Amino acid sequence: MFSSSPSSSSRTVAVTDQIPANGRPPALQLIGNSAAMQALRAQISRIARCGAPVAIRGESGSGKELAARAIHAQGARAGFPFIAVNCGAIPEALMEAEFFGCRQGAYTGALHERQGLFQAAHGGSLLLDEVDDLPLGMQVKLLRALQERRVRKLGGSRDEAVDVRILCASQHGLARGVAAATFRRDLYYRLNVIELAVPPLRERLADLEVLCEAILARLSPQQAVRLAPPVLAALAGYAFPGNVRELENLLERALAFADDGVIAPDGLGLPSLAGVTPLRAPPAMPERQLSLPGMAPRSVAPVLPLALYLCQAEREMITLALVRERYHRGRAARQLGISVRQLRYRMQKLTIQEPQLDDGMEDK
Ligand SMILES: Nc1ncnc2c1ncn2[C@@H]1O[C@H](COP(=O)(O)OP(=O)(O)OP(=O)(O)O)[C@@H](O)[C@H]1O
Ligand SMILES: [Mg+2]
Predict the structure, then answer these.
(1) Of 199, 231, 250, which closes a domain?
(2) Which residues, other chains included, contact 216 with Cβ-Cβ below 8 Å and sequence gap of 6+?
(3) Rounded Cα gap, residues 65 and 188, in angstroms
(4) Ligand 2: distance of its center to the CA of 330 in Å?
(5) What is the pLDDT of residues 37-46, one digit of tens each?
(6) Residue 200 Cβ < 6 Å to ligand 1
(7) Ligand 1, residues 22, 66, 170, 212: which to mutate, most atoms within 8 A of Cβ?
(8) Domain range spanning residue 313?
(9) 144 band by pLDDT with thresholds 50, 70 and 90
(10) Rounded to two decimals, what is the model's pTM?
């Protein structure tokens, strides 16, 4: 249910999922040199210097926990524990004991006095992952603990002081829960002092190559594995809804089909283009320096498989026409020089969706 920092400088605490269920050793740092990743790292360094609570937002598998670990590791609390807890994974009945500890006999089955997450993280940082999944009752108790910096074990009669930096993570940000009345506004203000957004992988495709290299080196420490040249282009055309975690899974599967240490495009098992939400714009592939004898190095545009490139260009132009014509398909089709039927077919094929508008959108 919770895990401690893999960093050797952290105190060891009881863990239940230090090695993830898939048995894969976790990455220890955020990899990537894209502008987005450099900006993220710069923000993390600044945030690490202060002790304020941080609310991290980002899609599933985008690296929120890794960002939280980096904030902890670069701050003054680095020599103390980092504890991560998935708030959505704890049964509500056990939550109070899990967070604040419990006295022996506090409930049936509480055979021993036990520390909670707050005590375990004392001096260090506590990451509340999927914090928006906390039930309202537990939100009240958490707020009290944060305000008073004291916790009371379940079944206990006295409070203990705890000194913990609170980091929290969610996919959509906490404001959404406040608007939906599922998240307390007062707790929101306590937790959301500093906001940090982790960009999805499809917005930093320039990181793909180094990410693949690092992941493959981690997955296959004995044998060097490389990607056949078209593989990177194929990956860059994929939207990665599951972000870096999905990339890890994909490469792990591809490793099983690698021949002589080379992953070929058909070993990737990428969902076919028709089933994937293609990217809105041609992907920002990392530019390579091409250096030939006697020539100064120059930057060259990456080569994409033609089908993928055409697909993306088509999608972009259709979207542009639709937006310009306020989703009036007839006018958009005229602009594009195709029939409305053809437009409808292509929109379906490319999974282009229209927003709900009051006017327009008629098949004229
Ligand atoms: N920039 C990155 N560099 C290297 N590995 C990364 C990066 N971002 C994510 N990962 C890896 O991807 C996986 C998911 O990362 P992490 O658990 O930090 O994501 P998350 O946003 O917390 O996911 P979830 O929403 O499921 O909680 C981990 O194995 C992590 O090591
Ligand atoms: Mg997480």
Answers:
(1) 199
(2) 225, 226, 227, 251, 255, 263
(3) 19
(4) 45
(5) 999 999 999 9
(6) no
(7) 66
(8) 306-349
(9) very high
(10) 0.73
